[in-house]
Amino acid sequence: MKKILALSVIAAGVFFTACNNEAGGLSATAKKNMAANDSIMKAYERGDFSKMGDYIAADAVDHGGEQGDIVGLDNIVKEMKRYKEMMPDMKIVMMKTTADDEYVYTWSEVKGTMMGKEMTMKSVDVTRFKDGKAAEHWVYMDPKDIMAMMPPMPADTTSMQK
Prior knowledge:
A 6-stranded mixed β-sheet has the order 2-1-6-5-4-3. It contains 4 helices and 6 strands. The protein has helices at 2-20, 28-46, 73-86, 143-149, and strands spanning 56-62, 70-71, 91-99, 103-114, 117-130, 133-141. Strand 4 (103-114) and strand 5 (117-130) form a beta hairpin. The chain is of the alpha+beta class. It has a single domain (27-153), classed as Nuclear Transport Factor 2, Chain: A. The radius of gyration is 22 Å and the shape is globular. The model is unreliable at 4-9 and 11-23 (pLDDT under 50).
């Protein structure tokens, strides 16, 4: 009898846990983080940085800076503005986004004109959320897209052999 009772309690626990997680779907926290991530991306695309503090923590760290980590909301927004100025017609297509209670993963494509040249860049962004706000961010870009942003190499490459 004790075994049947124990098995019943375990089965009920598994059933109610599964129902709480919306039949295997995302938790409420994961959905909230995805919505915040989506808001950041849309505001970035529009060039509207006025509400970034609603979605990004004051002490956030962006590990995707050209010179290393960008620390703090104000510095992150400053860098976002700089990139938006370099590509004012930026369009962001979020091809796939998923999340858990701590991280949001976004595979996106950014299109626009940079320095007079049409650009398309694909990347995977990983954003860690804490208390409903982005706390850390990493970006992983396709190497060919990174190279397309670089200035052309000089025709004479002998100086590189020294």
